[in-house]
Records
---
Amino acid sequence: GNSVTQMEGPVTLSEEAFLTINCTYTATGYPSLFWYVQYPGEGLQLLLKATKADDKGSNKGFEATYRKETTSFHLEKGSVQVSDSAVYFCALEPGSNYKLTFGKGTLLTVNP
Amino acid sequence: GAVVSQHPSWVICKSGTSVKIECRSLDFQATTMFWYRQFPKQSLMLMATSNEGSKATYEQGVEKDKFLINHASLTLSTLTVTSAHPEDSSFYICSATAQGEENYGYTFGSGTRLTVV
């Protein structure tokens, strides 16, 4: 079946530090890949996505590249801000049934 | 962009009562809506998928008689937790998509915190 594995948190960084949150997946076929962000007490917001191999999704300084050879979709940001503190979820959509499979989420805390 | 409104944002109810949660797509027609449950510090667990005008498809282990889902129109789906008990306390999140419309993707509501006392 489909699954998403992302690095366990929590991750604590200082402002302006470099961020990497690892995400690997298992899926049949060619899934679409997503990163969602959840701020405290809120629902999920789409951060970025990629729909095919070698695509790079980017938004608000965050980037992730769809790597089919390593089945990975790692999230990166060059300089984090306090406002980036949130839970980040990696997810895949297999393309056949529109159901998202989520990783367990990674809590990021950025200190000033 | 696409917006999904979910109400209420939080609710406290007594054990044995029922609670209804609404999920509305405000600016698009949602052919499919999804209901998730999220436990503290855990990922989202898909409970069911609903398509407008048809019965919801429940995931394995989800009690369909306890979690009633209605998707009567292309802009509204409801989740009713019947005879709620403290173990039903959780964060419930809906999402909606317009199948075939890649630009919409999946849009999530802001969630409902249910506390059963």
---
Amino acid sequence: GIQVEQSPPDLILQEGANSTLRCNFSDSVNNLQWFHQNPWGQLINLFYIPSGTKQNGRLSATTVATERYSLLYISSSQTTDSGVYFCAVIAGGTSYGKLTFGQGTILTVHP
Amino acid sequence: GAGVSQSPSNKVTEKGKDVELRCDPISGHTALYWYRQRLGQGLEFLIYFQGNSAPDKSGLPSDRFSAERTGESVSTLTIQRTQQEDSAVYLCASSLYGGGQETQYFGPGTRLLVL
């Protein structure tokens, strides 16, 4: 099946810093989602982005489907950005929504 | 509107007991998914329901696990004769049609601890 690798596994920042999280996948995809899992375990949808670029406030994401990677950018980080960031994909040609998740990037933002 | 809801939030049980976990999808969503998240890990797919089609059970780890869904509403995930390795967070998600090109929305999860 499709493999999803996220990097870095851990990231520690000072408040106000910028960061880039990466997601590599091993095959073509027709769905890619970024999630933030907060300290209470809730998975929050950030982006649905199988290709192209999207922005939402301080967060933006770019997926280059032909090169099989996606990037999540966090600018001017805040302590509330702390948590685990997951990339999840659905392999191209799959007719329904069985998401395959990466192992996540643990982000800690210090005040 | 209301998001995906799950109950109970937390469940502590003894090894060998059966447990039932419940999921209420977003109203109007025809597709429902169960995932499991072990401590420090990403999510693993368990089972998928779409409308009245036969569910995809390919992710269920053993025959102790089963799930049901009535129409396009509530789903229950049942774990029989629980084992300590079943301890995990069980998350439910729903989406509008179940196709591969739409957003899945997750509930808050049920944290299961098997002693």
---
Amino acid sequence: GAGVSQTPSNKVTEKGKYVELRCDPISGHTALYWYRQSLGQGPEFLIYFQGTGAADDSGLPNDRFFAVRPEGSVSTLKIQRTERGDSAMYLCASSLNVGPYEQYFGPGTRLTVT
Amino acid sequence: QKEVEQNSGPLSVPEGAIASLNCTYSDRGSQSFFWYRQYSGKSPELIMSIYSNGDKEDGRFTAQLNKASQYVSLLIRDSQPSDSATYLCAVNGYGGSQGNLIFGKGTKLSVKP
């Protein structure tokens, strides 16, 4: 079956601009996660959703970052007033449910802020 | 601060040998443990999950968990050049953060033909 998909695969934007990153989880998966990975580091948790609601957003670095999942499927990560330090690979994962379930990652979006 | 520690490597093994990758974690309440493989420029790919003490085998891969020692390892038998990648250890949080995974920085494995 289809895996997690993410668009765009690459995004180059200028400092100060607004960007949206999209994630489409595996069909039937109720939990959706966003992570950010910098070069040489492991993925770092940003936020996860159980259904439509954000169950834990403790990993969002500041209020420029926001994510939604209005219908409990596709999610959008929104970054306002981008900074060069936001440049990273943004990864989305989904799992059947929240808890000790296997998480499957999408291909990621490489964000570069110039 | 919950932490997952891995030796960054690189770990170099000859083709056909056993590669042994190790990981320790700080949170004694952790319940679920995962190994991901990540090729350069690609996203992490799940290769093993383990939840109970002991060994779990899947093909050439064996995951080992020791909760008392807060230690999890991955053995790759008959290593192939295609196994060359970074291996990420991930631990599931507990309590209010049962959803997110905490990752180590990864161990880079190089399998020489």
---
Amino acid sequence: NAGVMQNPRHLVRRRGQEARLRCSPMKGHSHVYWYRQLPEEGLKFMVYLQKENIIDESGMPKERFSAEFPKEGPSILRIQQVVRGDSAAYFCASSPLGLPDGETQYFGPGTRLLVL
Amino acid sequence: SQQGEEDPQALSIQEGENATMNCSYKTSINNLQWYRQNSGRGLVHLILIRSNEREKHSGRLRVTLDTSKKSSSLLITASRAADTASYFCATVTSGTYKYIFGTGTRLKVLA
């Protein structure tokens, strides 16, 4: 049973470009969470999605950031017109049940975004 | 200060010693979890303790939870160099959907 998969693992973008980060949850998991980690800091919640639904996006910046989890295919975190401050590690997690009923989230290896 | 603060921020010990890390939080929680993160890698789930539990063991790990003090501790016994990593606690506030992570304790175990 493959774990949570994220790609790319490393992504370099120039200021103003778009970044697309992909997350394939574990088999059987229909709940996906995205987190951002700045250097030397903990993870900050961004958004929680179920298939075709955004449940909680309270941690996601209102501008330039969007997320989706289509019926088919991976969840996508999209950052438009990237700025240097977007440089961070972006982690995806999945769970079979959603919070607050669910418990453990399983994390992917992360995508490290560097904006030049 | 934010939910889920660990202390100390950094800890350096000799192999074989025990390492204790603490986590404090602010709100009512459903459960508290500890994760390990090796440098530049993803998070590995270590242990979950529910709000009605006081202590839990897993191998060399012992976690305690004191809901009256809103705090938890992670004890790693007989540490090894391979335990060198950052350790984070994460809480889920009752009735919400998101995990709140602390800033982590960076543990270094010297061989």
